[in-house]
Design a protein that fits this description.
- By secondary structure, this protein is mainly alpha-helical.
- The chain has a domain at 7-55.
- The protein has 6 helices and no strands.
- Helix 1 (7-20) packs parallel to helix 3.
- It is elongated.
- The N and C termini lie far apart (98 Å).
- This is Zinc-finger domain-containing protein.
- The chain crosses the membrane at residues 88-109.
- InterPro entries: Anti_sigma_zinc_sf (IPR041916).
C-alpha cells in the first residue's frame, strides 16, 4: 500500500483507534484488510484493552464529591437570585399596533362610505365616448 509500507506506523494508528476511538483513514483500513500482521496487532490491542477493563475494579467516587457538586449548584448568599428582566418591546409593539388600528378605523368612519366618492362607471364611459367622438377619433360612432 502506498504510504503505509511500514507496519510500525500502522500500529500507532491502531493504538489510537483502540484506545481513543480515533477513526482510521480509507488507506489505513485498506492496509488493515490486506496485512495479516496488522490484523494480529489489532486483535492483540483489543484483547489487551478488554482485559485491562475487566481487571480494573470500579472505584467509588470520593465522599466529598457529592457535597462539592451540590454546593456549586446552590446559589450563594452573596449572589442574590436574579429576577428575569422584562422586555419592553413586545408591549410597545402591541400598543403601536392597537393605536394604528384605532386610528385607521376612526379615519374610515369619519370619511363615510368610500362608494359615495367613486363616480358611476356608466357616466364615465358615456363621458369618455362623447369626448372621443367629439374629437373625431371614432368617426361614425354616435354618443
Amino acid at each position: 500500500m502506498a504510504g503505509l509500507t511500514d507496519c510500525g506506523i500502522m500500529t500507532e494508528h491502531l493504538d489510537a483507534y483502540v484506545a481513543r476511538g480515533e477513526a482510521l483513514t480509507a488507506a489505513q483500513e485498506a492496509h488493515l484488510r490486506s496485512c495479516e500482521a496488522c490484523q494480529a496487532d489489532l486483535r492483540l490491542l483489543q484483547a489487551l484493552q478488554e482485559a485491562l477493563l475487566e481487571a480494573t475494579p470500579a472505584a467509588p467516587p470520593p465522599p466529598a464529591l457529592r457535597e462539592v457538586i451540590l454546593a456549586a449548584a446552590r446559589p450563594t448568599a452573596a449572589e442574590p437570585a436574579r429576577t428575569p428582566r422584562r422586555r419592553w418591546w413586545p408591549a410597545a409593539l402591541s400598543a403601536a399596533a392597537a393605536l394604528t388600528g384605532a386610528l385607521t378605523l376612526a379615519a374610515l368612519l369619519q370619511s363615510g362610505s368610500t362608494l359615495a366618492v367613486l363616480p358611476d362607471p356608466a357616466v364615465v364611459v358615456k363621458t369618455c365616448c362623447a369626448v372621443e367622438v367629439g374629437a373625431g377619433r371614432f368617426k361614425g360612432v354616435a354618443a
